[in-house]
Amino acid sequence: MSTIRLTMAQALVKYLAAQRIVIDGQTYPLFEGVFAIFGHGNVAGMGEALYHARTDLPTLRAHNEQSMAHAAIAFAKANGRRRLMATTSSIGPGATNMVTAAALAHANRLPVLLLPGDTFATREPDPVLQQVEHFGDPTITVNDCFRPVSRYFDRITRPEQLLTSLPQAIATLLDPEHCGPVTLALPQDVQTFAHDYPERFFAPQVHCIRQPRPDDRELDDAIATLTKAKQPLIIAGGGAHYANTCERLGEFARERGIPVAETQAGKGALPDHHPSNVGAIGVTGSAAANQLAEQADVILAIGTRLQDFTTGSRALFERDDLALVSLNVGRIDSLKHRAVPLTCDAGVGLQLFAERLGEWHATEEWRERASAMKREWTAIVQHATHNDGSDLPTDAQVIGAVNRQAGDDGTVVCAAGGLPGELHKLWQCAGPGSYHVEYGYSCMGYEIAGGLGVKMARPEREVFVMVGDGSYLMHNSELATSVMLGHKLVVVVLDNRGFGCINRLQQATGGAGFNNLLADCRSVPEGAPKIDFAGHARALGCQAESVTGIAELEQALQRARSAETTYVIAIDTDPLPATDEGGAWWDVAVPEVSTRDQVQKAYTRYRDAKTRQYH
């Protein structure tokens, strides 16, 4: 057997560079590259290995470990989980900075390969710089924090362990059911140890995403349930995108007369103008989708994990006579909420439905009802997002302006705060690829880094990042990275002077305005400073300006579209209003005991609402 002598880090990099994937009949490198911030835990081993492979596996420099991992995750999401990136950091704070990103990837079922440095496996120089000692168990390092937020975790303590660990890591990253973050902790000394690896280990390997077929009995049960329906509703989740079956979903829904509601991850599966699209579902859903959910006799959930924002905290689908069919590649997801499970690839399941449902379709009356409700909701959207001339516009009005300027080639990127809810309700999608909102983990700070990842994945699209002042202040450094790498973003910073979303939630649960809006925070007599976001963005290399009102915003967006580099627009917004129409109840616990009358009243409302939850 022919062998090649390499360090562990060299072997790891060589293996990653040899991986390929087939997408629509074309073969591409599986890994776009590696985001790296070097430190003493990875610069000697991984740094030297990446240097020699920089043509086949490019290394990209970022400014924050969490942000670079967010960008890598967004790249994978924008590629439908078919192409990936890796990230490497030193041991210590560089590694633990990525734990939040790992949790985000885990919650959203998105693949990313995390390669944090680790302490010395030999322990000869212990304790080393940045090492956290566990006196009762010296095998524990800070990288063990990755265990609960990784789909696959391994600590490579011998170079030959790569021979078994790397194939398992790649299999996990590409598994349609178990897809998520993979962490390989790399002790800094072991990165430099050499081994005689079989040359065949590094032969190019071409991967395809599995498309599992269903059990025949499950399929029979699902067909039997669907054919009884007169008023069916489809809920489209992220699985519709990842199974690359959005077009098939649209055809199936149109032919069978079934309205389609979309989760945050599923939004954009159908363009807004599709005759079956009735908008968002759940807590941040349209009135049309939620009313249809309450009236439906069968709900077909496709590729959704049915979390609380989708189900109205288990209160939206409350009727005893409602049947739920869950078509999902994940067994755990397909069994949730007492569903009739159909565990398989979403595209495969839809094709089998099309072949076996015969002449069955929804009633004409149900189809007309759904169309009428969608028309009513469209009018609400237009009213909420139109420019009323205010100098302090609402989030909805800003969304309307960005949506109008985004066009068919635009992608909106967002993550946390009040914006995702308003976007879910109000953004009118052009189709798949036009909407990228991270809401499985609702992670502040994802927005700008996520926009970078989307632009790397889809350079032909104009990427519009919408971010609140709170998230911007948490993570903004990858603006400089976007300029450095030439990946242009249009970033709209909505400055409502605090955490406006949580301020509204605080008051809705009876609390006093406290520690959310800057005006309600402890500060010097002069108050919190007014941040010059445009000036800050210019200091990071961006073009930037501040505007007042929607008319100025739309003009600035036109300038931003024609710019050649990242362009930041800052606008002051009203922190109080949110779109009242639509929506559903959300279970946010209220204190049973309080001296505030508002809290006592909120608790009474909360207790009454909980009676609607099914179990």
UniProtKB/TrEMBL annotation:
Listed GO MF terms: acetolactate synthase activity; flavin adenine dinucleotide binding; hydrolase activity, acting on acid carbon-carbon bonds, in ketonic substances; magnesium ion binding; thiamine pyrophosphate binding
GO annotations of cellular component type: acetolactate synthase complex
Residue span, Thiamine pyrophosphate enzyme TPP-binding domain: 417-570
Superkingdom to which the source organism belongs: Bacteria
Domain Thiamine pyrophosphate enzyme N-terminal TPP-binding, chain residue ranges per copy: 34-130
Cross-referenced SUPFAM superfamilies: DHS-like NAD/FAD-binding domain, Thiamin diphosphate-binding fold (THDP-binding)
GO biological process terms held by the UniProt record: inositol catabolic process; isoleucine biosynthetic process; L-valine biosynthetic process
InterPro entries: DHS-like_NAD/FAD-binding_dom (IPR029035), Myo_inos_IolD (IPR030817), THDP-binding (IPR029061), Thiamin_PyroP_enz_cen_dom (IPR012000), Thiamin_PyroP_enz_TPP-bd_dom (IPR012001), TPP-bd_CS (IPR000399), TPP_enz (IPR045229), TPP_enzyme_TPP-bd (IPR011766)
Keywords from the named record: Hydrolase, Thiamine pyrophosphate
Ranges where the Thiamine pyrophosphate enzyme central domain occurs: 219-350
One of the Pfam families matching this protein, by short name: TPP_enzyme_C
Family: Belongs to the TPP enzyme family.
Protein name: 3D-(3,5/4)-trihydroxycyclohexane-1,2-dione hydrolase
Native organism taxonomy: Bacteria, Pseudomonadati, Pseudomonadota, Gammaproteobacteria, Oceanospirillales
